[in-house]
Design brief:
Blueprint (H helix, E strand, L loop, with lengths): L1 E7 L2 E6 L10 E9 L7 H4 L10 E9 L11 E4 L9 H4 L7 H5 L10 E4 L1 H6 L1 E3 L6 H4 L2 H13 L7 E5 L3 H12 L4 E6 L2 H10 L3 E4 L5 H8 L4 E6 L4 H8 L2 E9 L13 H4 L6 E4 L5 H12 L9 E6 L3 H10 L5 E5 L3
Helix pairs in contact: 6-7, 6-12
């Protein structure tokens, strides 16, 4: 089978590998669509593991079912989770499924930028979700990032009537805007450095979308009658974005650190300004658990998230390198989808 192998952000090679053989409890998935995630481009995190096949936002059709698999058949249309929790450990028992050791070890073989992937038994048991007839494979690739967003907003305790500031309006930011609106947010402000993405933020529900260089907390106060944001969502790991977010949270509010920074990045915190008397919460989230996937798929299937409208580019497997260039450029693109059999 053909695979797109990652050596660096600027070196993605089309290679041939044997199609994985499946064992008891396992499934072979024919990949129909696989989304490029911004995290795929984190060279500081990826290079020491290269070469490898990336791609974790995956939807496809079951090509082969191993002995002992129940409830799945050849020809089923599904989206799949690459990381799944054990559901029995200390962390899972406290609701923190995405810091479970099992979740961090699990994956499928080799990765979504391939014509076929093998789903291990635990992924089959916990990480396969049937796509309704009205949901395309492309839309199915948005289930994983939306699951991450839903988990983040739940941990941040978003509430109806909230004022929300989303810093960074790429795919994750746009999903945060839509999810916040679904949760009853009253007023949503979005920022970005690309006008293309600011236009998209307005289309999906932001009340105000402003270039990051023009944004100030005073602008937010003016728009909301004197208050800052009840929830700040950091979809950018830039130090300047983090500083902006910390300056923009209202008393009793929350800052959700959703995007990673580069290695070793730190920002100064004025403890009294943030915490003493102000009851500000700083929190973070990572990934999504099976329940988050199920909720995300339900929202997409119900039309509550404009998943299809966020897909701007569709490329074959040989175009994976070009897709990485598009995502890295962060300009006139949103979601880039790789279709291995295109």
């Amino acid at each position: 089978m053909r695979v797109a192998v990652y050596y660096s952000n600027n070196d993605i090679r089309l290679e041939e590998r044997p199609t994985a053989e499946i064992g008891p409890g396992e499934v072979l998935l024919r990949v129909e669509a696989s989304g490029i995630c911004g995290s795929d481009l984190l060279e500081w995190y990826r290079l020491h593991k290269a070469p490898l096949v990336l791609g974790h936002e995956v939807a496809g059709v079951i090509a082969e079912v191993g002995p002992g698999v129940e409830g799945l058949r050849t020809g089923d249309r599904v989206c799949v989770a690459h990381h799944v929790p054990c559901n029995t450990c200390h962390y899972c028992g406290r609701g923190h499924h995405t810091v479970c050791d099992t979740l961090r070890r699990t994956n499928f073989d080799p990765g979504g930028f391939a014509e076929y992937v093998r789903l291990p038994r635990i992924n089959v048991e916990q990480g396969v979700f049937a796509l309704p007839d009205g949901v395309s494979y492309e839309e199915g690739t948005l289930v994983e990032p939306l699951a991450c967003v839903l988990r983040g907003q739940r941990l941040a305790c978003i509430a109806p009537g909230a004022t929300v500031l989303v810093i960074g309006s790429g795919t994750a930011g746009l999903l945060h805007i839509q999810s916040a609106r679904e949760s009853g947010a009253h007023y949503i402000v979005a920022t970005d450095i690309a006008e293309y993405r600011l236009d998209a933020a307005r289309r999906v529900g932001a009340d105000v979308a402003v270039h990051a260089r023009d944004y100030t907390p005073a602008l937010l106060r003016e728009a909301t009658g004197g208050r800052l944001a009840d929830l700040v969502v950091l979809c950018s790991g830039a130090a300047s974005a983090i500083a902006q977010g910390l300056d923009s949270v209202e008393r009793g509010g929350t800052v959700l650190f959703f995007a990673p920074t580069g290695p070793g990045v730190s920002v100064p915190l004025v403890v009294n300004d943030l915490f003493w008397r102000n009851e500000i919460t700083l929190t973070s989230s990572y990934g999504g658990a099976p329940g988050d996937y199920a909720e995300a798929l339900d929202m997409i299937a119900g039309g509550r998230i404009a998943a299809g409208d966020m897909i701007t580019h569709r490329l074959g497997l040989a175009g994976t390198g070009a897709g990485f260039e598009l995502v890295a450029g962060a300009q006139d693109c949103l979601k880039v989808i790789i279709e291995p059999h295109r």
